[in-house]
TrEMBL record:
HAMAP family: Ribosomal_uS17_B (MF_01345_B)
Keywords of this entry: Ribonucleoprotein, Ribosomal protein, RNA-binding, rRNA-binding
A GO biological process held by the record: translation
GO molecular function: rRNA binding; structural constituent of ribosome
Basic and acidic residues: bias regions: 44-54
Domain of life: Bacteria
Name of the molecule in the record: Small ribosomal subunit protein uS17
Entries under Pfam families matching the protein: Ribosomal_S17
Native organism taxonomy: Bacteria, Pseudomonadati, Pseudomonadota, Alphaproteobacteria, Hyphomicrobiales
Subunit structure: Part of the 30S ribosomal subunit.
Gene behind the chain: rpsQ
Family under the similarity heading: Belongs to the universal ribosomal protein uS17 family.
Organism field: Manganibacter manganicus
């Protein structure tokens, strides 16, 4: 089964080897027919602490790394 890849923005890089990535999704509400924006934050592993707040990154699903980390940063920039 392929691993999911999501794009988002780094909102925190204070933890060692970890970044918090905010992923936003947009969809049309089934009843109101209005575009709704929802976001979720994921903790992702950043081995070399290379990414800073505001960076656009892609994250990929992985096996659990710690209690909250299940994602790994795979690339930066608009992918």
């Amino acid at each position: 089964m392929p691993k999911r890849i999501l794009q988002g923005t780094v909102v925190s890089d204070k933890n060692d080897k970890t970044v918090v990535v905010k992923v936003e999704r947009r969809f049309t509400h089934p009843m109101m027919k209005k575009v709704v924006r929802m976001s979720k934050k994921y903790k992702a592993h950043d081995e070399n602490n290379t990414h800073k707040v505001g960076d656009q990154v892609s994250i990929q699903e992985s096996a659990p790394i710690s209690k909250d980390k299940r994602w790994v940063v795979v690339s930066s920039g608009q992918a």
